[in-house]
Amino acid sequence: MVNDGRIDRRSRRRIIAALLGAALGTPLSVRSQTSAEGEKDVLAAEILDKADRIRFPSDSFEVDVAVTSYSDGKQTDARLYKVLSRGSDNTIVQVLEPASDRGQAMLMRGRDLWIFLPTVSQPVRLSLSQRLTGQVANGDIARANFGGDYRPRLLRTEEVDGHEHYVLELTAVDRGVTYNRVLYWVRRSNFHPHKAEFFSLSGRLLKTARYEEFKTLGGRVRPTRLVLRDALREGEESVMDYSAMKLRDLPARMFSKDYLQRL
Asked: In the predicted model, what is the mean pLDDT of residues 118-137?
């Protein structure tokens, strides 16, 4: 390498290559791959956001939700709720029917959820994953979107029912969300949500969902029906029907425990 105190050409080239490699940091092929993965992550986030905006408005709104549960085709339960939502992190769910449960209400702030009962002086803490009725979890009715709770990754595109769909994998940002992992099919042409599969922390498929009955609701075309089917017990399903959606100016002071206790 050294000849009369000088560095030969081959060694000089090696040193220059090493310095360039250190300056660039990551090999070109790895940097290209990282860039491509970053672009896919951005695309996945855009797809998820557009699908969320179709499911529910980004502004404050109210909507009636009728939940009907079935077992082997026979109706087992029917409930009606009014949902008041301000952004994605503030929700009030009021029980309208059955009459015996009227006066009950749930309050969600961030991922904190409480239920208020007329016969109990203090609100009771709940989890988003806890079952509300039938196949419907608390988070299914209290959370307005997926974007704040999950990290999306675009897995592939897939043809379903004659239409091309994006297939997203949604991974929970923490254990406080409703499901640990979700596979989510979104139609490529218009970003309409099509179906979803919900998984537990252990990886077990808990239930499936289909978004149906697309109609104008709250100023744009949305799915007005969500069908949830139990993946563990065949024949068990719940249908959520949305109606009477309208935009409303809902002040922040409404979404507090003091306000709901007075209400």
From this structure: 92
Q: Is 41 within the bounds of a domain?
A: no
Cα 49 off chain centre by: 10
Average pLDDT score over residue span 255-262: 86
Q: Give the residue numbers spanning the domain of 80.
A: 48-262
Mean pLDDT, residues 21-26? 47
Going 249 to 250 to 253 to 254, the CA torsion angle's sign is positive
Collapsing DSSP to helix, strand or coil, 126 comes out as strand
| Inside any domain, residue 148 | yes
Neighbours of 243 (CB within 10 A): 12
CATH of the domain at 186: 2.50.20.10
92 in a domain, yes or no? Answer: yes
Residue 172 included in any domain: yes
Total number of domains in the chain = 1
Could you write out the DSSP letters of every residue in 133-152?
ETTEEHHHHH---STTTEEE
- Looking at the chain, the whole-number percentage of residues with pLDDT higher than 70 is 86
Q: Summarize pLDDT for 55-75 with one digit per residue, the tens.
A: 999 889 999 999 999 999 999
Using omega within 30 degrees of 0 as the cis cutoff, is the peptide bond preceding 98 cis?
yes
Alpha-carbon distance 259 to 263, whole Å? Answer: 6
Distance CA 208, CA 213 (A): 17
Indicate the pTM of the whole model. 0.84
Q: Show the CA angle centred on residue 160, arms to residues 155 and 165, nearest 5°.
A: 40
CA atoms within 13 A on the CB side of 12: 5
